Amino acid sequence: MQAENRFRTPNRRTFLIGAGMGVVGMITAAPQRALADGPMAFPKRIVEILDQNVGPGDYHFGDLMMELPIIAESGFSVPVTLRVATKMTEDDHVKRILVFAPENPEATVADYIMGVRAGKAEVSSRIRMAKTQTVYAVALMADGRRWGTSVPLNVTFGACVEEVDAFHAAEFLKRQRVRGNE
Amino acid sequence: MEIPEPRISVPETAKKGDVIEIRTLINHVMHNGYSYDRDGQIIPRHIINTFFVTYNGVEVFRSNLQPGTAENPYLAFFTTATETGKLEFTWLDDDGSVYKRSREITVTA
Questions:
Q1: What is the count of residue pairs from A and B with beta carbons less than 8 Å apart?
Q2: What ranges do the domains of chain A cover?
Q3: Which positions ≥6 away from A5 have C-beta within 8 Å?
Q4: How deeply is A125 buried, as exposed, middle or buried, from its count of CB atoms within 10 A (0-12, 13-18, 19+)?
């Protein structure tokens, strides 16, 4: 009976282990929904940016994948990898990939332009996140297809804050690191 | 501000047709224009706004960097090794500075 309960209610120890694994583990937004499921829904702010910069159109879940950590301890630097399932041939290649964070002061956080010469449709960078939010990405293909994806991201300390807070965040991370070395 | 010293990783040799990974990092404060200093004053925006790479004069990758890019912008991407030559990397700063570096690559058949 007791053993059973231990599995049901995570105590402090199991919770911390779980949280630790969450930080290390990566989440991949695999092709979640088929093309038949209809176009993706974006927050209004992102729809406006897309209409202005790219022109109106529908985005589908499918070939675009975005890798983000499950939990970002610091919103100042969040590793992100974008990948499109394409051979990058003359008729089938990515022209542009955009990343949006709707809760950031400026929603567009990344804008990559590439072509056939890339050979492989993959880009990695580090972005800033103001707070916990869903991150969106779109990929524009040469033949006019448009892929989209979204990944929820938890942010412990947001970026775009006062320097004093940034100082505390840095101190916190330093302590974390020391603890990890023990 | 210290002068940015870009770090670039490109393989020295490659076989023709190989897809090679290029990694770049440039040290830069990337002030996004939304944070405050200790006196409560807004730190004005100062970022690297554009980055592009040319391979023997042909552009192979470009990024319009945003204030949402983390400090010391890091970018990793791919290109196809087509011919022996020069890869030129250019970063454009908000203050008008241009940082340029290049790397040679030898492509074997």
A1: 102
A2: 26-181
A3: none
A4: buried
Residue of A106, A135, A164, A168 to mutate, interface with B, max B Cβ within 10 Å = A106
Give the three-state DSSP class for A141.
strand
pLDDT by residue (tens digit) across A139-161? 999 999 999 999 999 998 887 55
Radius of gyration, CA atoms only, chain A? 19
Q: What CATH number is given for A26-181 in this structure?
A: 2.60.40.2470
Q: Model confidence over A58-99: pLDDT tens digits? A: 999 999 999 999 999 889 999 999 999 999 999 999 999 999
Mean pLDDT by 10 residues, chain B (109 residues): 85 95 95 83 92 96 95 96 96 95 94
Domain B7-108 has CATH 2.40.280.10: no
Domains of chain B, by residue range, sit at 7-108
Neighbours of A62 (CB within 10 A): 21
CA distance A116 to A113: 11
Measure B23 CA to nearest chain A CA, in Å: 9
Nearest to A148 by CA among A20, A9, A43: A43
Chain B partners within 8 Å of A122 (Cβ): 77-78
ipTM rounded to 2 decimals: 0.93
> Measured between CA atoms, how close is B4 to chain A, in angstroms?
18
Beta-sheet pairing, A108-114 with B58-64: antiparallel
